[in-house]
Design a protein that fits this description.
- The protein is mostly helical.
- The protein contains 4 helices and no strands.
- Helix 1 packs antiparallel against helix 2 and helix 2 packs antiparallel against helix 3.
- The longest helix is centred in the last third of the chain and has 38 residues.
- The radius of gyration is 20 Å and the shape is flat.
Length: 136
């Protein structure tokens, strides 16, 4: 499968030891191949898109979600242009893109909850309820 079988992108924490170094090596190779390929050919080909797909996947595996999102967005746009919006690969790419957005939003929400958690708990232990009204 082009997108790692839809496994949600499992970051380096789920990868066996040493895999992160391999992903970094793979990313460097994909970047080199993509640069060479686009210098020799138009990027708007299925081979060019495949390289973009793999870079997005490797960035996800390295837990670089912002970069993965950027490449995934590029993939969706090119697939829509070349293969059409209803093509199965385009729809798969769009699902991966939307999943990345959801993952990033969930992480931000979790980080905000963690960072505001101690202050909120301190406030509530001081006699306030969740809506800010003093407890009776």
């Amino acid at each position: 499968a082009e997108h790692g079988g839809g496994d949600g992108g499992g970051g380096p924490a789920t990868a066996p030891g040493g895999a992160t170094a391999l992903y970094k090596e793979a990313l460097a190779l994909f970047e080199k191949v993509y640069a060479t390929y686009t210098n020799l050919n138009e990027a708007k080909t299925l081979d060019g898109i495949k390289c973009i797909t793999m870079m997005s996947l490797v960035y996800r595996r390295l837990d670089s979600l912002a970069s993965a999102l950027e490449w995934s967005n590029k993939e969706v746009k090119l697939r829509e242009e070349i293969q059409g919006e209803l093509h199965p690969r385009t729809q798969q790419a769009r699902r991966v893109y939307l999943d990345l957005i959801e993952t990033i939003q969930r992480r931000r929400s979790d980080e905000e909850a963690e960072s505001s958690g101690p202050a909120k708990r301190a406030r509530l232990s001081g006699g306030e309820t969740e809506n800010g009204v003093a407890a009776a």
